[in-house]
């Protein structure tokens, strides 16, 4: 099971890197075409928009599984060590609830976009599948947040490094 999770992580990381490289190449070609030849790539904005969503929402479950979201210890001193376990459980439940709510909202939005045939402006790319992909990303992130709360972060020792304090 754990080997499958790591293989899935590597696959998603590869897809993210390829989407990011495609975005860079497309933007570079679009700028060169626009500046040198007066001919931008038609629909580059639509493609970049979709690729950006893929990069961001492929990464969301990975960041969640690694426990790498930005955290603020604003209330930690007020709560005290005695109640810290309860505080962490409460925040984990809140995070999972919010991620599930966002998944549900994007499922509704994706189904509505498919029903009304919502498309991008230039290339008329359908938006429904993209919204449903975002919903799946939020759902996987909720699952990852649940697993994170129960077992701890999914971190590769080769991917981490010690940071100097500020």
From TrEMBL:
Residues 23-146 form the Tripartite ATP-independent periplasmic transporters DctQ component domain. It is found in: Cell inner membrane. The complex comprises the extracytoplasmic solute receptor protein and the two transmembrane proteins. This is TRAP transporter small permease protein. InterPro entries: DctQ, TRAP_DctQ. The chain crosses the membrane at residues 12-31, 51-72, 84-107, 128-150. The keyword Endoplasmic reticulum does not apply. It is a multi-pass membrane protein. It comes from Roseicyclus mahoneyensis. GO terms for molecular function: transmembrane transporter activity. It comes from the Bacteria. Part of the tripartite ATP-independent periplasmic (TRAP) transport system. GO terms for cellular component: plasma membrane. The lineage of its organism: Bacteria, Pseudomonadati, Pseudomonadota, Alphaproteobacteria, Rhodobacterales. Keywords: Cell inner membrane, Cell membrane, Membrane, Transmembrane, Transmembrane helix, Transport. It holds the Pfam family DctQ. GO terms for biological process: C4-dicarboxylate transport. Belongs to the TRAP transporter small permease family. The keyword Transmembrane helix applies.
